[in-house]
Design brief:
By secondary structure, the protein is mostly helical. The protein contains 25 helices and four strands. The strands form two sheets. It has a two-stranded antiparallel ribbon. Keywords: Repeat.
């Protein structure tokens, strides 16, 4: 995406957290944030940015995270400065700082989050446990265990004691970074710190006192949280995803020693892991153990079972009768447990029936069942349906049109993935006009198209020699105007580069070179 330079006015740069560093490296790409001391008077970029309460800023940060849009964070920061600036002093509350750091960390903008941390300190605001926890989340998301440990040490150095959430994030961060031994040692460290605090509380020490404590019945000590079932679930989630099933035994033994019980979430993690490995018999054993331990299954449990039924591997397909029987049996079992399938359960059924069994009739039957229950289809369900229609030979565009008309008439909720698949599907089906019309609707409604969908539109326009339309599309994307006035979503896997290489191969000229989407940010050492 191209971020056009505003101007070279120093007041502008001192006021913005988003800076375009194109002058540093012409081959680089991502926008970065710069936090500076505020000027005595905070200028506005536009009257629309004036706000009178922090709730609107918080909502804007929430939208920024949802849309993964760094520009919304810039706008929120501008508004925060204007709201809290008074006589040249800034008193932005710690909660807003923490939310900003959390948003940036969740978007993997770790360098920017640390810039906010430094700005807080410069303005006399001390980080809290929430601040440090948010930074650790960013380290976990960016797989940076070295920085994670530095943040942990810095937190302890200012005498802030971690809670169970902070411990769990640290453990997950190490495990996610393939530091399995260190992660499990961290789990032991958490347990040891708690056990030692118990001893200190009892004014005793040594093995005799440790042996006399019933850890299973003890609770947390202030400043030293007891590991919980949530801690257990976090650990086995990562181990299962990493395929480190050989470490389950020691973790289970640890849980047994300290009286940490399995809950339905624990079993769901284990069942999901078994199903992904195509080990249905192990998943069934977990279900039996749940029943023996009187752990009631939830909707997610049955959804996992549905997933196993409809996503069978090895080329084995259920007959139509078997599919109907499986649906009836599972829904009846859910009813026996007093559970009603949610929209995600129905989405799993429909997706499996369409994607793996080509059974549109059964999927339509489930949609009718949902209608009788007053359950509206989700964006996921609509996406599964259009994917099925577009996958037919030839693509069933009439069915897609009918579905889209129904969605518009009922004002049903659809998401960016749905729009992207629609644009992509229409383009591949040689319906460039329909694809462009959807892009106009997205632009009107503030939605951001993806590079893959735009690439498919470019291909079909070129195939049909609609060069003027293609030139307009390229200009809109380059300048973030018209169809792409809200930017383009998704920078991974060289998608932007592929789009630009394709249009240049078609002989379409760009107005300017060196778009930010094709540059790499110059990184610096982050200070804690």
């Amino acid at each position: 995406m191209r971020q056009t330079s505003k101007n070279n006015n120093p007041s502008h740069h001192s006021n913005s957290i988003v800076q375009d560093r194109s002058n540093q490296n012409p081959q680089s790409g991502n926008r970065s944030i710069r936090i500076h001391r505020l000027p005595q008077k905070t200028p506005f970029r536009s009257p629309q940015q004036r706000v009178t309460n922090p709730e609107s800023i918080e909502k804007q940060l929430g939208r920024a995270l949802e849309q993964q849009d760094i520009r919304l964070i810039d706008r929120a920061w501008q508004q925060a400065q204007a709201l809290y600036a008074s006589s040249g002093n800034v008193s932005i509350p710690i909660d807003l700082y923490n939310l900003l750091i959390y948003t940036l960390s969740s978007m993997k903008r770790l360098e920017d989050a640390f810039s906010v941390l430094q700005f807080m300190k410069l303005n006399g605001i001390l980080p809290t446990l929430i601040t440090w926890t948010s930074l650790m989340k960013g380290c976990t998301k960016t797989h940076n265990p070295v920085l994670l440990e530095k943040v942990w040490a810095a937190m302890l150095a200012v005498n802030i004691q971690p809670d169970d959430v902070a411990w769990t994030i640290r453990i997950q961060g190490l495990l996610n970074s393939d530091r399995i031994n260190e992660g499990l040692q961290c789990l032991n460290d958490m347990t040891t710190a708690w056990a030692t605090a118990l001893l200190s509380k009892a004014k005793g020490s040594g093995k005799d006192q440790i042996a006399s404590i019933d850890f299973k019945s003890e609770e947390s000590v202030p400043g030293f949280p007891k590991p919980t079932t949530g801690t257990l679930n976090a650990v086995i989630t990562v181990l299962a995803r990493k395929g480190k099933l050989n470490r389950f035994t020691e973790v289970f033994q640890w849980a047994k020693t300290y009286g940490i019980l399995f809950d339905v979430i624990t079993y769901n993690i284990l069942i999901k892991s078994a199903i992904r490995r195509n080990q249905t018999h192990i998943a069934i054993e977990y279900l039996r153990t749940m029943e023996a331990e009187n752990v009631k299954p939830d909707v997610i449990t049955f959804t996992l079972v549905l997933d196993a039924v409809f996503r069978r591997r090895g080329g084995v397909s259920l007959s139509t009768e078997e599919q109907d029987s499986a649906i009836t049996a599972i829904l009846s079992d859910m009813d026996r447990h007093g559970l009603q399938p949610n929209v995600h359960s129905f989405a799993t059924m429909i997706d499996g029936l369409l994607k793996h069994h080509n059974n549109l009739e059964a999927a339509q039957g489930i949609l009718k069942h949902m209608e009788c229950k007053g359950i509206h289809p989700s964006a996921h369900i609509y996406t599964s349906l259009i994917a099925y229609y577009f996958s037919q030979e030839p693509p069933d565009v009439n069915a897609v049109d009918a579905l889209w008309n129904g969605i518009q008439t009922s004002n049903a909720a659809v998401d960016l993935i749905f729009y992207d698949r629609m644009v992509e599907g229409y383009a591949k089906a040689d319906r460039a006009g329909s694809a462009l019309n959807l892009l106009r609707i997205m632009a009107r409604d503030g939605k951001t198209p993806g590079w893959v969908a735009l690439t498919e539109v470019a291909k079909t326009l070129a195939y049909n020699e609609q060069w003027e339309r293609l030139q307009e599309l390229v200009s809109d994307v380059e300048l973030e105007e018209g169809l792409a006035k809200h930017g383009v979503m998704g920078q991974g896997a060289g998608r932007a580069e592929h789009f630009w290489a394709l249009v240049e191969n078609y002989g379409i000229e760009r107005r300017k070179k060196g778009l930010p989407s094709q540059r790499r940010t110059v990184r610096k050492e982050m200070e804690i």
